[in-house]
Amino acid sequence: MRCYLSGMPELRLGLNDKVMFEATGRATPARGKAIEMEDVKFHQCVRLSRFENDRTISFIPPDGEFELMSYRLQTAVKPLIWIEAVVENYTGSRVEYMIKAKAQFKRRSSANNVEIVVPVADDADTPRFRVGYWSSIGSVTYAPERSALVWKIKQFQGGKEFLMRAHFGLPSVDGSRSISILVVRPNVLSRFILLLISSPTFSPLPAHIHIPADELEKRPPISIKFEIPYFTVSGIQVRYLKIVEKSGYQALPWVRYITQNGAIWLMFTKMRSV
Question: Ranges for the MHD domain (predicted)?
Fold first, then answer.
């Protein structure tokens, strides 16, 4: 949450909280659905006694940016972007990569600035790929300083599926090798940003990406960056944000929903010799 308010006004935030609707006997929202939050943690400015009593989130915010609350859901969620990678090592010192990316969210949403980074062998050389034939969308480049292929897609519409292929020379490959099929399941960070300002200026939300250190030590993972605006995986909604002041305090409340990539999980699903 970002607050740029004068004085110390009290704020009240309403969410589509299932427990609150059940406790107060209110009807669930006509649009959307109520969600059941678990392991809720609040910033120290929130009045916990009020929340425990009637699920009202009441607080006097500090100036600037802070995390008001965090929560967890039990609902199982499909990976938003599903990645499958097939790596084939052939005789004749060459290796082929086939990467398939599938958006598993609704068509009305789009992931922006998608970047898929595929590690390759340090001694890989003579890359062969081109946009159109080798990649069904976006651009593909070889970054030797990172020992990786970088596949960039400016806009990835929900429900779509795309394919990218690349060939490399590989001096260290001798004789018959294996096919490795990998599946990458990216976790996501879904959040909503609340902004209370006295002027319409604000800085953009920085991207957050986390790759576990132990995974990097064992095997460089395929990493994915993306951002889906106006979308939350959890389905959480801000019903209202009120300033409780008798003096008729004037302010501009603003809500931004956004989903960003989180941790990367890498899993081998099948290996066989060729």
Answer: 1-267
Is residue 99 packed enough to be buried (19+ CB in 10 Å), middle (13-18) or exposed (0-12)?
buried
3-state DSSP call for residue 53? helix
In contact, 16 and 239? CB cutoff 8 Å: yes
User: From first to last of its 274 residues, what are the pLDDT tens digits of the chain?
Assistant: 888 888 888 999 988 887 665 555 555 555 557 778 888 899 999 999 998 888 889 999 999 999 999 888 777 778 889 888 888 877 667 788 888 899 999 999 999 999 998 888 777 777 876 544 455 688 888 898 888 889 999 999 999 999 988 888 877 545 444 445 555 555 555 444 454 443 233 333 333 334 344 434 445 778 889 999 988 887 888 888 888 877 777 788 888 888 888 755 544 343 333 4
What distance in Å separates the CA atoms of residue 179 and residue 224, rounded to the nearest whole number?
22
CA–CA gap between residue 112 and residue 105 (Å, rounded): 13
Backbone angles phi, psi at 48, to 5 degrees: -65, -35
Of residues 91, 93, 150, 87, the one with CA closest to residue 123: 93
30-61 per-position pLDDT tens digit: 555 777 888 889 999 999 999 888 888 999 99
Q: How many domains does the chain have?
A: 2
Q: Give the domain-ending residue among 50, 74, 98.
A: 74
- Asked if 162 and 129 count as a contact pair (C-beta separation under 8 A), the reply is no
Q: What tokens were used for 118?
A: 């595929």
Contacts of 14 (CB under 8 A, 6+ apart): 56, 57, 238, 239, 240, 241, 242
Query: Is residue 237 in some structural domain?
Result: no
